[in-house]
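Hi all, long-time lurker, first post. I run a small reading group and we've been trying to get comfortable going from sequence to structure in the token notation. Rather than ask abstract questions, I figured I'd post a concrete chain and ask someone more experienced to write out its structure so we can walk through it together at our next meeting. Sequence below, copied exactly:
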Amino acid sequence: MQEIRINTEYIKLDAFLKWTGVASLGSEAKIYILEEMVKVNGEICTQRGKKLRSGDIVEFEGETYKIV
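-- Answer (accepted) --
Happy to help. Here is the structure in token form:
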């Protein structure tokens, strides 16, 4: 599990995917989310604007990221 540090109260899911390098473009992140390829806290998430906060866990293609 990779720990990803954010310096704000929250980060939106699509921005998080770009921040971690999972997606190089916002449109790429949007596709991953809409095709139900991303899980947040163990559940598939289709909300691009989902606010992720410290302690949340994001899963994508076998990789796990914890927000700290």
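A couple of things your group might point at:
The domain at 2-67 is CATH 3.10.290.10 (Structural Genomics Hypothetical 15.5 Kd Protein In mrcA-pckA Intergenic Region; Chain A).
The mean pLDDT is 94.
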